[in-house]
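Hello Y.,

Per our agreement to keep a running log of every chain we model this quarter, I'm adding this entry. I've kept the format consistent with earlier entries: sequence first, then predicted structure.
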Amino acid sequence: MPLITFIEPDGARHEVDAVPGATLMETAIRNGVRGIVAECGGACTCATCHVYVDADWLAVTGGPSPMEEDMLDFAFEVEENSRLSCQIRVRDEMDGLVVTIPKRQG
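Predicted structure for the entry above:
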């Protein structure tokens, strides 16, 4: 299983085993990572699972779809590496992925 590191806004780190095929949002919620609100439950209709993908992993996670880009307009403090964690499906090649959760969600 890929090991994913979530960094909470206060700097707390959670290294969790992720199930391939699950989303980063589902993985965070299952493992008690704070800061991922996920109001829409993963339907890409809100921006409450916003994360920053570590620069070293952008090529692996890929960029946002047009629909995701539209939802990111509702997120706070969007950066070039912003993604919605509900839109990133865990794959084996994501072993070691690091994402940071912003201080507030959209």
